[in-house]
Amino acid sequence: MATIELNQLVKRYGKLEAVKGIDLAIDDGEFVVFVGPSGCGKSTTLRMIAGLEEISDGTLKISGNVVNEKEPKQRNIAMVFQNYAIYPHMTVRQNIGFGLYTSKLDREEKRRRIEDAGKLLGLETLLDRRPAALSGGQRQRVAIGRAMVRDPAAFLFDEPLSNLDAQLRSQMRIEIKRLHQRLKTTTVYVTHDQVEAMTMADRIVVMKDGHILQVGTPTELYEAPVDVFTARFIGSPSMNLLRGTRTATSAASSATGELLIGVRPHDLLVGESVSDTERFALEGVVTAVEPLGPETLVHLDIDKSSVIATARDKSIPTVGSRLCCHAERGTLYLFDATTEKLLGRA
Questions:
Q1: Do 212 and 72 fall within a single domain?
Q2: pTM of the predicted model, to two decimals?
Q3: Residue 277 pLDDT grade (very low, low, confident, very high; cuts 50, 70, 90)
Q4: SS3 107
C-alpha cells in the first residue's frame, strides 16, 4: 500500500513544458483516474510516477519518501501498458511469473503467487497456454497478473483498454474495478475515455495543456464542473452550450455581459411548447436521431447551434421536423463567455 504525492511536478522536453507544476495527493488504497485529451500530460505524469521519465522540477513522494532519483524497480510499483507487453513464446504461467524469476522468493512461493493471480483473474485453466490462443481481454488479464504477483505498493495503468473492442472494454472495466475492491492497492489509471473515468474512479483528475483543471469524485465533476472544458469532457453526450446575455440577476456575479448557458442533453427534454417561466425552452429543426431503446437522442439545429435533447417516449422524431424542448431552470449552468469559468447555476 502507498500514498503518492505530487508537489509542483514539472516535466520539460527542451523548451516545451509538458507538465506545468501540478499538485496532487493520492490516498492509500485510492483509485485515481487521470483523464484528458491527447497531449494533456496525463501519460507523462504517470511515467514520472513510474520512474520512466525524469522529473524536471518539483518532488514526487511515495509513502512519504522522495523518489525523484530512485530507479523504477526501487519504487515498488507495477505498471500495465496499453500493448500488454507479454511474451508470445512463453506460456501464461511464465508470463505472469516473469517478474519473479530474479526475486529471492522460494519456488513454492512463486508458484503460489502465480496460481493465486491466475485464479483471481479467471486464468487458472489457461496457465499452460500461449498468448496466441488467448483473446484480447485474456491477454490483458495476463499483463495485470504479471503486475499483481510482485505484490506492489501501487498499480499504474496506462490506457490499458484502448486496444479492446467496446464489449471487452466494458467487461474489463468491471473486472479491474472488482480487482481493486479486493486488493485495496493504490491505483493510478490514465485514459482519454471519460466513461472509463466515471465508472472506475474514486476520484478523477481532469488535465488540459499540462495543468490540472479539477479533481473530484465522478459525481462532483458531473454536477459541479468548474469550467466549460470539464463540463463538456465529463458526461456523455457532452453538455450543450448556447450563447446568452448575463444580467445582474441571472447569476451569482452582478456583472453583465456575454455568457454561455450549459444544459446536459438528459436534462433537455423534447416536448410541447411551454410558457412556464420556470423552464428554459428552445425550438429547432431535427437534424439527426439516435434511438437508444428507453430513450432517443435528438439532434437539433437551433439558431445555427447544434443541440442534443432527449425524447423519453417511444415515438421517434422525423428528421427535418420542428420540435420544442425544455429544461428546468435549476439544471442550467452559467459560464463566463470570456474565461469559460463557471459563474453559477441559474
A1: yes
A2: 0.89
A3: low
A4: helix
Domain CATH number, residue 16: 3.40.50.300
Instruction: Give yes or no: residues 171 and 279 share one domain.
Output: no
Q: Do 258 and 215 belong together in one domain?
A: no
Inter-axis angle of helices 107-120 and 136-148, nearest 10: 140
Query: Within the chain, what is the greatest distance between any pair of CA atoms?
Result: 77
Give the Cα separation of 169 and 146 in Å (integer). 20
Phi-psi region of 5 (alpha: psi -120 to 50; beta: other; left: phi over 0): beta
Regarding whether 243 and 227 lie in a shared domain, the answer is no
- Contacts of residue 41, Cβ cutoff 8 Å, sequence gap at least 6: 11, 18, 19, 20, 22, 207, 209, 210, 211
**C-beta separation of 258 from 339 below 8 A:** no
CATH code of the domain in which 292 resides: 2.40.50.140
Query: In this structure, what C-alpha cell is assigned to residue 318?
Result: 422525423
Q: What is the pLDDT of residues 125-149, one digit of tens each?
A: 999 999 999 988 889 889 999 988 8
